[in-house]
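Reviewers of the previous submission asked for a worked example of the structure-prediction workflow described in the proposal, so we include one complete record here. The input consisted solely of the amino acid sequence. No template or homolog information was supplied to the procedure at any stage.
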Amino acid sequence: MSFTKADVQTDVQYKTSRSGGKGGQNVNKVSSKVELLFSINDSTLFTDEQKALLNSKLQSRFNKDGLLQIVCEEERSQYLNKEKALEKLIVILTKALHQPKKRKASKPSKASIAARLDDKRRASLKKINRRFNSSD
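From that input alone, the workflow returned the following structure tokens.
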């Protein structure tokens, strides 16, 4: 399933706060840290089966309120941090919804079977020729 930033944006809540670490005056006065909160159960993007799949796969990422929480404070700008957090959310959701193809069992080809048996025969002959003959 593919969805765009605009689709996800309708179900997202943001909290902003001051970022920690280096940055001097910018860190002290600008709220550039962004916490993105996303409720899978309240989202209109997913079917019930998809919601159940997301809840089971992303269970370790939920906060105590049952919301998917992503924190971003990499950039100096609140806008850029919101964009990065939204991109992270989309990556997480698409990875969780991805279902790998089932493997089809295959038979070995006739040529590979013949090559394997030929190798076994050669190894057997090699060991037979190494044996000590008691008749000599």
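Helices lie at 5-9, 25-29, 48-57, 78-97, 110-130. We consider this example representative of the routine output the project will generate in years two and three.
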